[in-house]
Queue: 2 jobs
Job 1
Amino acid sequence: MTEPGHGAATQSRVSGTVRIVGSGLLGASIGHALRAKGVDVVLADASPAQLRLAIDYGAGRAASVDDHPALIVVAVPPDVTADVIESELARFPDAVVTDVASVKLEPYRALRDRGVDLTRYIGSHPLAGRERGGAISARADLFIGRPWVVCRDEETRAADLSLVEALALDVGAMPLEMTPEEHDRSVALTSHVPQVVASLLAARLADAEEGALRLAGPGVRDTTRIAASAPELWVQILGANAAPVVDILDALAEDLREVSAALRDPDAPGSRRTVADAIRHGNEGVERLPGKHGQNRRFEQLVVMVDDTPGQLGRLFGELGELEVNVEDLRLEHSPGAQFGLAEISVAPAALRGAIEGLESRGWRIAGSTND
């Protein structure tokens, strides 16, 4: 018999009890994913209310004095991560301790400077999250297919490393080894600076005229999606990874100054080339981003108009299946007040023409494609 909401457990790579300190989005999501594998998960949190909520949602059970965890996952805010790691190492001398903070070098240095024995500590970071935090937003599938960075050093024991990698694999993530320095430089570019840029751009919308906001389309929505993140958390993250973030922001500021100078006099010699090069370099960067299954393969897009009535999206997918067209990606947009939505569907280049012709023959309206 299985517990409600957890389904039949499949075999776990992690054996023994896993203690999770911090029952917010990441901690509770790890708990849900491990419990679905049949792992005994105990939760601890400085907030009794947050802890009770996570337990009520099924992320784990309350910790007890009789617990002897094999693995401890510290999932607390960055400004207290080092303190909690030190406390857990001292309290459970036989357990391996990892953390999921989005910055790796600062807590490692802080612990090392305190003289803490870090033999049983392995920093890690799952590259996953949502705009909304807390136990109520936790999901067992949050980490599926996402990278999980593991930061080992020369003192790391093979068995301990295997245990942390087993944790990542159990929740559906892909373990990836990096040094703390490599990790922090990487997330500065791929996560921390994008957050700053998205927030600054979204801030320009706060005082925009209502008429301008009615024109908002996928461009502004895509580039500001993460701007809904919690300021309190990001103050800590950016402060802990300030140096690499500043390096990238300074370079970005110089790029913006060059484009701004060119647009002040678009007819001046070289101005149009400056703007074109900026856009072209952006094309080159986007092409390097891994796509589906980690491949750099590019897909074609078609935009289908979908009536805002029940069952229409399901019918669209069903008919694409009948046409033997595999949907590689999907993005939905619904303009306020419109009686239809736009489904932007990514397909293999060889399938684009057949998808368009097949859907049109079945009465679907194609609003655009990369063939246009």
Job 2
Amino acid sequence: MNEILESISKFKVVPVVVLEDAKDAIPLGRALSNGGLKCAEITFRTEAAEESIRLMSNHFPDMLIGAGTVLTTEQVDKAVAAGAKFIVSPGLNPKVVQYCIDKDIVIVPGVTNPSGIEQALELGLEVVKFFPAEANGGLNAIKAMAGPFPKLKFMPTGGISENNIGEYLSFSKIVACGGTWMVKESLIKNGEYEKIEELTREAIKTVFGFQLKHVGVNCEDEGEANASADKISDLFGFQKRAGNSSIFTDDGIEFMKAPYLGKKGHIAIGTNDVLGAMKYLESLGVTFNKDSEKYKNDKLIAVYLEEEISGFAIHLVQN
């Protein structure tokens, strides 16, 4: 897959932004970036779009900024000159698509039917936008069309929210979803950037299913692990469960029978997709201990981060 599309796939969700005033570009970019989403699609529906792309691209060079609702080749030129790294259009205009291809510009045009998909494939595209998604049958429609066209992938937009994005992303043919719920026009207009950052963090948590699974405590030996587990179980009525290398109490605390990774122990963070979460975190500069990777049926189910936090190793585990 193209490098830009690969980067989009790591974020899983692309905020689709309408900016009426370019002064909002920098604080919005900061809110998205701080919230963990270093990408945005700025729609070309307003006079402020071009300058907003320029400002956001210049102030946040590590963000992946694209231009949406692009309808003409002239808009393509303006968007790219302003710093847009990819183009998104509501429909498939062969002239605009071919123009982007000839200039080596990534474009994701909108389609809603098999005829549009065949046009996209004829033009050599890898990913198309399915828009408006919910109004055109949603995930069931995408699955029905994906069958005859196994090489094409989709970026649905329109009606996607925190309530259904998980369902969409569970389908392997979807690289990412466009969404507006964390960047509603009313929030931007009222300058509620802290709220946007909060909603962005919640979106990441929802997309990857991040949750605390358990805390592992390093013990010197099996005797200490047993004694610690017994104490916790006796005090709080937790169920004790012994394994080969550790002893759990109610799945929330794991006492290691011998010191393992982490000076004090480890913290396990669950995710719906270990490999996807790993790619996302790598895009934020996180590094991983590749020797710690664990697989089941060729699927990555656990991996440790290189960095410890307050003496605890951190690892991702499959929910």
